[in-house]
Amino acid sequence: MLKHYFEKYKQFIPLICIAFAILIIAIFAINMVTADHSMTINEPPVNALEVDDEAEEDTAPEPVIPDHVFVEVKGAVKNPGVFEVPADARVTNVLSMAVVLDSADLLTVNQSEKVRDEMVIYVPAAGEIEETALVNPVETAEEEVQVNINTASIDELTQLNGIGEKKAQLILDYRDENGLFMTKEDLMNISGIGEKTFDSLEPYITID
């Protein structure tokens, strides 16, 4: 029976296949168009984004630059106090308003400096000295290094100003021949050491 129907309608099979293929293609095309349309609806227009950005930029607050600032002046001036001056003023402009005294020392004041709000300018008086607190001051006495001419070696004696190796050897020879120096002045018994040389050596030698 199936064979009978197949033989009867087989000439329509190609048409049915073509119609089915067209239907599949149509369904696929409709789905693609629907998807593109949905994406277009959800995506905001480029111009709208640009307008929003410009609107945000327009609404951003701009920093306020003051036209005037307040500066305080202290020290050796006739009119100490707070002055309202233009924001681009210099220290010299403020000092002219405060009237600097003749006793003022302006060497430590940078008069060309640009002022700023809440700035404090201090004008010291001439000869004014800032006191510095000293915590537990300790006085140390510098110890003078003295050379014992009765026990010193040649190397130690040559450390004295004006004593070379030759004079140092003469000092050692004197000790060997005459014994220890009894006084500092006995050093003048050495050849080449006179009163002038002794005076320069005396603070730096000892016999004890």
TrEMBL record:
One of its GO terms (biological process) is DNA repair. Gene3D superfamilies: AF1531-like domain. PANTHER family: ENDONUCLEASE/EXONUCLEASE/PHOSPHATASE FAMILY DOMAIN-CONTAINING PROTEIN 1, ENDONUCLEASE_EXONUCLEASE_PHOSPHATASE FAMILY DOMAIN-CONTAINING PROTEIN 1. The keyword Oxidoreductase does not apply. The chain crosses the membrane at residues 12-33. The keyword Membrane applies. It comes from the Bacteria. GO terms for cellular component: type II protein secretion system complex. Keywords: Membrane, Transmembrane, Transmembrane helix. One of its GO terms (molecular function) is DNA binding. Pfam families: HHH_3. Residues 155-174, 185-204 form the Helix-hairpin-helix DNA-binding motif class domain. This is Competence protein ComEA.
